[in-house]
Every structure is written in C-alpha cells, then in structure tokens.
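## retry 2 of 3
previous attempt timed out at serialization; input unchanged, resubmitting
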Amino acid sequence: MDIKRLLTSVFGLGWMPKAPGTWGSLPVVIIFALVCHLAGTACSILIAMGAIVLISSFICVNFSPSVIKRTGLQDPGEIVIDEAAGQAVTFLAAVFFNISSFDNAHIFMTAISGFLLFRLFDIAKPWPIRKLEKYPEGWGILLDDLLAGVFACIVLVLCVRFGVIDYMSGLFFPSEGTPLGILHAIILGIIQGATEFLPVSSSGHLVLFEKIFQFNPDTPEMLLFDLCIHVGTLAAIFIVFAKSIISFVKNLLASKKYGKNFVEIYKKSPSVHILVLAILVTCITGVIGIIFKDSFESARGNLKFIAIMWLITGTLLLSTDLRKKSRMGLRKFGIIAAIIVALAQSIAILPGVSRSGATICAAILVGLHRRWAVEFSFLIAIPAILGATAIELIDDYAKISSGNLPVASVIAGSITAAITGVFALKLLIKTSRSTKLKYFAYYCYALACIVLIFTLK
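## retry succeeded, writing output
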C-alpha cells in the first residue's frame, strides 16, 4: 500500500465508489461533534480543527503530486484530504460563538449544518472558488476547498447568530414531553436505513448516537418508533430482492416435483435447501442470543468495547476482499457452512459488529459465490429482524402500548428508512460483488480510532 495514496485518500475513504468527497469530510464532522461534547470549549475546537487544517494541507500539497503522476489525472477523485482541510476550516466558526452554552441538540445541528454548508460550497464552487483550481498540482486541489470552507464558516456563524441553529434544533430535537417531530423522525429513519444494511453496525452507531447526544431510546415513544422503522427496513429488503424472493417462493411451492420424501427434495430443490439452512441459522442465532442475552446487553454501554468491535469488523471486511475466488453455488452450500454463518450472525448481536458484514463475509470466506452470499445474508435477515422486533415487542409491551406518536412522524420515519435502506442495499451489493468491502473497513477503522482517542484519556 502506497502511504501517500492512503493519506491523501483519508485512509481509503477517497476510494468509495459514490461521493468520495462527502466521505472525506465526514470524519472531521464526527471529530468536531466529539470535541464539542467532551471538551465543550472554543479553544479545544480551535486546536483540534486548526491541527486538522495544517496537517491535511501539508499532506495535500506535498503528497498529491505523487498521486497525480501515478494516476495520470490532474485532480484524482481519490484525493479527499483537501475536503478534510476545508471541512475543518468551516468549524473554525466555533471560535465566534459560545460553544460551552450549546446543548447536545445544538452541537448536532451545528455539526450537520457545517457539513452541509461546506459540501454546498465545495460542489457549487461560486466565484472565486473555481478560479483557485487553476493553481498547479496540490495547491490547486487544496485552495478551492479551503476557500469553500471559509465561505461555509461565514454562513455558519450567521446561522448561529440569527437563531437558525436554535430553530432547527427545536425541529429535530423537540423538548422533553414534546411528540416526536417529522424532521426528527426523518433523520432517525435515515440513520436506521443506512446502518442496518451497510456493514458498519447499526447497533454501534445507535450507542454512539446515544452517548454523544444523550439520546434515550427506551422511552415508550421511541420504542414504538423503533418498531415502525424496522418495518421500513424490512420493506427495503423485499423491494431490492423482489425478483429473487418471488423466484424462491415459486420454486418452493413446486418442490413436490423434486421427489417424494423430504431428503430427496432437500437435495434437489434449491428453495427447500436454502429454506432449511435459513431456519437452521435462525434457530442457532436465537438460541445463542437468549443464552448470552445479559452479556450482549451489558456490552452496549462500553464505547471502548464497541470501538474494538469496529476494528474487528473492518479486519473481517478487508480479509474478505482478499479472497478473490468464491464460486460455490447454493446447492453445495451445506449445513457446516450454514452453522459458520449462524455463529457469525450470533456474534453480530454485539454492538459494533455488523450483521450484514459478518454474515456476508462468513459466507464468502467458506466459498459461497458473492452474489449468493449477499442474497442468503438478507434472506436470513428477514427472520432475524422480525424475531428481534417480536422479542422487543413482548419484552417492552407495557411501555410500547403507552407510547403516543403522531401518525405523520411514524409514516415519515418508516418511509425514510425504507428509501435509505434501498440505496444502502444497492451500494452494499455493488461493493461486495466487486471486492470493494474495504471501503467500509476503512470507515470502521477511522470511526474506531476516533472513538478510542476520546475514550482512552
């Protein structure tokens, strides 16, 4: 691995197949939110963001020429260290207002607003930002992003001073006792839809979200809302895999043509074969989940442990990409292989371990073709999600039944989770089939390192 390409791509985020610049900006947003939450002073933010600007600028100017020469492109898309620098410039705005007076809702909205403003100016490149691209090599790549960051910084200060952040915080994070708002429901739906399917662990992100913004998921309203948006993520599976599911059901209904006894049908019918393995995986996962329920729940409160699980998830994703040949068909995918996948899915109950990532990687590593690995993973996701939802409903029925949510918020959150889930699933399918799971591995590594830095002090 070329260290210069690794650094200029922000540890591989620049190699993401979609919107690499957005991915390159994201770690800075997370660092900003963490510094605000843990330190809460303008001075600490100035030091953190200033350090990112200086280090990122140095890397961009000095290492970009080597990447340009190697790729043959004047402005390679994989170079996103300039986006990191520009995003950090945006958050220097915190020097101009009293960040210590911000609650978690204001921190979140400031981080999101700064992120969106920088992306807007970086993409639109109003005058004179675009002119700076004409400078040679690394300087041309860097300067336009720095100026975009300056523009975003100015607008962010104005948004804070004129109460826009206050207004948006009230919309996204209603005060205690206020029903869940539509905008709040939409952003939670996006988080659920994306992280449920991308191999980055939805449970780990939920815990991180809770810790940073002191979010309580155990209120009756939120338990009810959580059940509803899980229905939305299930809908995404049925939408994306509609043809495969229909074909599976048709073959299952015609299974009698394969023989007269169950063993013969199991050996010859693809649908019966996969159904038996799916039931086996689900049963093993359920038994392990019940036996170790207390241990799994106790792990939720430990961010250090979750960060280590993110490192393990990233390593698993990288290892899977190294396996270039995985050509086993569904007929040869047997009970032993299914048990291995079941164990992987069981471990994924731990926060920080991705269910989709663990099951897909396990299936590919035992030799299953990448296409079938993805489809099998999400076939067993249906009973897994339904089972987890049912258990939550039974365990917390008293709380859930007392919850009172606006119908519009429930619908908005569920639809958003479904739509986001569809896009996330399609992205996962594309990256897993083209041996590009490493992009998610780099994200897991970066997130784990950020969390460890702020928890090991």
